[in-house]
């Protein structure tokens, strides 16, 4: 057993991680010489991709991790080698780039600095590292990626469409709403070495080669961007699908978001011509290449079985129109029509998709049959979600099957009123009697229940008649938080399902009604929380590119992105997504590229703020603290809450200037720093003087929780005012019987501000409230996702009679960030978590909590358990990370590390390893 003196002597020399090993009997004075041959692992490029084709970045960023099994704790240097070819039997040749040995602990987002990379190029790379003792690792396994078509010049085809849909022919909405079927036959007589399909659409596509669906799990491709400025392209490896001899490349095409409407404006739907652009490149063993592109030689028809397709209204399928073998060589297309073509617009950017597409991720079975009457049945899947159903049931020829969707039952009855003008209904007309199988292709739905009518009335419904195919952008969702409280665990699940449901190529506000837009305010309050529960960095980076595309010449940011004409004025708290999201992503990843990409947009938004202010007080329009509970009903628009609009706008003005200033410092934009610093101080001063009296009471309007939350969260009070503001906030919460009174803008700030005030016990109380307004209120009323309103629904009364009652809205899921940064206590001290603070908030509402956060260095894990006043705490720190641990108040004599008693030691330099503490708390709540 180590003496206390030797403990501190060894700790000073080797660090506390080394001491943990010693306490376990596994240390020696020569530990610095331990073998470190383990290679780096988890090689990624860009925002977290590996071994992929169709990559978008000509100067990629490289990331890796130090293996958990390595004896080292820190990386002191790295070397990256990049090659244009790779042969496992030969020496790796770094003909594109060799970084040489670079002295740096950086293991993520290292920018490529070699020879120029070009479209289609396949790139191989590897990395090795050196540890704190300057001992090198083995080379990693070789990772690879392949670039897509990076610029317009690489595309040799044309946009194509059925001529009846061309605008010159004055097509009706019905014609444009009818999906197109397109095909091209070609020969391939040589030995195929490789085949790639580059493809996109103005609209939505499904592609086939020789009858085989390409990427059958992909849905709603290519996705949604500002179509007049940029369309994403996809790359598929189709080497195994090209035959020797005759072949067919085919696709069906629908309007999707491109020719869709927004909100209830049905007259705007199906007014643009859906078009396809494709380029199949076949590389042969003899070094030659054959290209099949979309051009005048393609054939088309609109006489296929999908008779109608709409994002909001669903799909109509008529089995009478089925075209057997239309996408194979065994088909006579003599009655098909030559397509119309259009040249590429050089102002319209075609860029490889930078994150994975929407996909069918999982299939759910019904948990019950709710009701069956005649030829109508209602299935309950037990979970609100997004996607499409797949049905397999008996049908009668000529008897139409109808499929409707609902989020919840209203007083026991199937209810669709909250979908508003979105018809959200699928129809299937069978041509024969018997079992039919159907899955919609060019629509999607938000739902928990489906109602199917029109099936064979002689049949008895079974739960295997339907599946729910859950769809969302394909990313990893972590199961990384659990506790001793079942309702808190349900809330964590609800947040994740809200995320999955609304991360549908863009961050939707809701997935079911006639809206489904990328609202910027919803996005900015949830972005950080989403990063804690899912690997969504690429998702956010891609959407921010669309925000940049849609930024107004004034610097204003639209209320929703992609923007379509509906509400055309910017709002504070919404447009501030332009500054808040890039900064939060930077803090969570450490990748300064996200700041560099968005800095010009951030500057533009600050200038727009300035244009809407006088004497540094902003009067920008705002949606306010949206859907605050118990608003002043006499107000002009009570949905916007009671917090003074100019207070909100000026607070966000200050916040955006501050974050742009911080960004300028990170990017060394020296010419901007002084002016931004002066502007920030002026706005901060104006905020204090214009909205608060000397005693910190508000000068006009209502004193709300949010008015103080904004000031405290954005650090807009001097130190002498901060305590007073905290006291006033606590008073307002007490006046509300310890309930929140916050909407979209205030709620995300609540937990962190209260923790900063030393009142995590109050966060727990608010979090565990059962009555309205609270998170558990929704759970008590059957919620399986987070809601738009705090009282959108009740089991007793059904849907709230007020409008906007989405039961699948992620904004209030922002509380999830506190599960990780509060309950578990994991916060970055430096961008990217290379230095981390661990300060778990222990409360009487829980006896156990555990979870992790995946940082660029590795997984940080925390778990704690209380029994009475005794606490057991486990902390795991990944390689290349330094942690500062702040323990809850405890009796010093009770503290043990790895079952060894100690009265005092420093906890500000924890290195990689596992630590097990136990102690007797002096208080069981912080």
Brief descriptors of the model:
926 residues, alpha+beta, Maltose phosphorylase, domain 3, Immunoglobulin-like, Jelly Rolls, 5 domains, ten-stranded mixed beta sheet, seven-stranded antiparallel beta sheet, 22% helix, disordered N terminus, Bac_rhamnosid_N
Give the low-pLDDT segments.
Answer: 1-35
Overall average pLDDT = 94
Write the CATH architecture name of the largest domain: Alpha/alpha barrel
- Helix proportion: 10-25%
| Relative strand content | 25-35%
Number of helices: 16
CATH topology of the largest domain: Glycosyltransferase
Radius of gyration: 29 Å
Number of domains: 5
| Biggest sheet details | 10 strands, mixed
Count of strand segments: 50
CATH class group of the largest domain? Mainly Alpha
Judged by helices, strands and strand pairing, the structural class is: alpha+beta
GO molecular function: alpha-L-rhamnosidase activity
EC number: 3.2.1.40
Pfam families: Bac_rhamnosid (PF05592), Bac_rhamnosid6H (PF17389), Bac_rhamnosid_C (PF17390), Bac_rhamnosid_N (PF08531), Ig_Rha78A_N (PF25788)
Catalytic activity: Hydrolysis of terminal non-reducing alpha-L-rhamnose residues in alpha-L-rhamnosides
């Amino acid at each position: 057993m180590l003496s206390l003196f030797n403990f501190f002597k060894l700790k000073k020399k080797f660090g506390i991680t080394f001491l943990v090993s010693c306490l376990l009997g596994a240390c020696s004075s020569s530990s610095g010489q331990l073998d470190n041959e383990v290679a780096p692992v988890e090689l990624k490029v860009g925002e977290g991709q590996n071994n992929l084709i169709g990559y978008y970045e000509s100067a990629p960023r490289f990331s890796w991790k130090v293996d958990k099994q390595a004896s080292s704790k820190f990386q002191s240097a790295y070397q990256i080698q990049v090659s244009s070819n790779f042969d496992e039997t030969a020496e790796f040749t770094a003909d594109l780039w060799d970084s040489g040995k670079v002295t740096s602990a950086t293991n993520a987002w290292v920018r490529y600095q070699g020879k120029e990379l070009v479209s289609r190029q396949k790139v191989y790379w590897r990395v090795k590292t050196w540890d704190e003792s300057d001992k090198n690792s083995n080379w990693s396994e070789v990772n690879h990626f392949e670039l897509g078509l990076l610029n317009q010049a690489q595309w040799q085809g044309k946009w194509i469409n059925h001529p009846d849909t061309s605008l010159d022919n004055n097509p009706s909405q019905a014609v444009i709403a009818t999906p197109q079927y397109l095909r091209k036959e070609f020969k391939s007589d040589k030995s195929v070495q490789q085949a790639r399909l580059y493809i996109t659409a103005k609209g939505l596509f499904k592609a086939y080669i020789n009858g085989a669906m390409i990427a059958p799990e992909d849905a709603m491709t290519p996705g949604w961007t500002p179509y007049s400025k940029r369309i994403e392209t996809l790359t598929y490896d189709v080497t195994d699908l090209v035959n020797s001899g005759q072949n067919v490349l085919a696709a069906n095409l629908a309007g999707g978001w491109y020719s869709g409407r927004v909100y209830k404006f049905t007259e705007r739907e199906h007014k643009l011509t859906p078009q396809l652009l494709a380029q199949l490149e076949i590389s042969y063993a003899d070094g030659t290449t054959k290209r099949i592109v979309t051009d005048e030689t393609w054939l088309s028809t609109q006489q296929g079985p999908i008779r109608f397709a709409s994002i909001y209204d669903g799909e109509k399928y008529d089995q009478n129109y089925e075209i057997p073998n239309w996408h194979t060589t065994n088909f006579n297309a003599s009655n098909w029509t030559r397509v119309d073509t259009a040249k590429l617009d050089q102002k319209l950017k075609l860029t490889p998709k930078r994150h994975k597409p929407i996909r069918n991720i999982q299939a759910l079975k019904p948990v019950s049959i709710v009701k069956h009457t005649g030829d109508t049945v209602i299935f309950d899947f037990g979970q609100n979600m997004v996607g499409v159903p797949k049905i397999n049931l008996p049908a009668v020829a000529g008897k139409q099957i109808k499929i409707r969707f609902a989020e919840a039952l209203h007083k026991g009855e199937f209810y669709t009123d909250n979908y508003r003008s979105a018809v959200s209904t699928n129809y299937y007309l069978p041509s024969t009697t018997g079992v039919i199988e159907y899955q919609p292709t060019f629509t999607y739905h938000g739902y928990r229940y489906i109602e199917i009518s029109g099936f064979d009335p002689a049949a008895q419904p079974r739960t295997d008649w339907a599946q729910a195919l859950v769809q969302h952008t394909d990313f990893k969702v972590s199961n990384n938080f659990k506790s001793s409280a079942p309702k808190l665990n349900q809330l964590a699940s609800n947040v994740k399902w809200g995320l999955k449901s609304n991360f549908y190529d863009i961050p939707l506000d809701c997935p079911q009604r006639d809206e489904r837009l990328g609202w910027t305010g919803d996005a900015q309050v949830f972005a950080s929380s989403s990063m804690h529960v899912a690997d969504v960095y690429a998702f956010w980076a891609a959407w921010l590119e669309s925000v940049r595309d849609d930024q107004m010449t004034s610097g204003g940011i639209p209320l929703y992105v992609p923007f379509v004409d509906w509400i055309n004025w910017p709002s504070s708290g919404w447009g501030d997504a332009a500054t808040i999201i890039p900064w939060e992503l930077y803090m969570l990843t450490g990748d300064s590229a996200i700041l560099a990409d968005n800095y010009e947009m951030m500057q533009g938004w600050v200038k727009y703020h300035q244009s809407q202010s006088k004497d540094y007080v902003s009067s920008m329009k705002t949606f306010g603290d949206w859907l605050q509970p118990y608003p002043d009903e006499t107000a002009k628009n009570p949905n916007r809450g009671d917090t003074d609009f100019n207070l909100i706008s000026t607070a966000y003005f200050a916040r955006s200037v501050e974050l742009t200033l911080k960004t300028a410092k990170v990017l060394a934009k020296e010419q901007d720093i002084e002016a931004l610093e002066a502007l920030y101080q002026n706005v901060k001063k104006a905020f204090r003087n214009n909205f608060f009296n000397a005693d910190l009471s508000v000068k006009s309007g209502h004193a709300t929780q949010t008015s103080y939350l904004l000031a405290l969260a954005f650090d807009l009070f001097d130190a002498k005012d901060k305590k007073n503001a905290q006291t006033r906030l606590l008073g307002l919460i007490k006046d509300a019987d310890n309930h929140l009174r916050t909407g979209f803008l205030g709620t995300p700030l609540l937990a962190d501000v209260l923790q900063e005030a030393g009142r995590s016990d109050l966060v727990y109380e608010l979090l565990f409230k059962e009555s309205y307004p609270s998170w558990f209120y929704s759970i008590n009323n059957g919620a399986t996702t987070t809601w738009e309103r705090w009282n959108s629904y009740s089991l007793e009364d059904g849907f709230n009679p007020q409008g906007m009652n989405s039961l699948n809205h992620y904004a209030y899921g922002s509380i999830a960030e506190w599960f990780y940064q509060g309950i578990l206590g994991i916060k970055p001290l430096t961008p990217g978590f290379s230095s981390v603070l661990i300060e778990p908030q222990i409360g009487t509402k829980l006896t156990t909590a555990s979870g992790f956060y995946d940082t660029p260095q590795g997984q940080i894990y925390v778990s704690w358990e209380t029994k009475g006043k005794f606490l057991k705490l486990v902390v795991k720190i990944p390689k290349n990370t330094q942690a500062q641990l702040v323990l809850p108040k405890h009796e010093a004599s009770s503290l043990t590390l790895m079952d060894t008693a100690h009265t005092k030691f420093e906890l500000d330099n924890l290195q990689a390893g596992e630590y097990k503490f136990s102690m007797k708390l002096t208080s069981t709540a912080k």
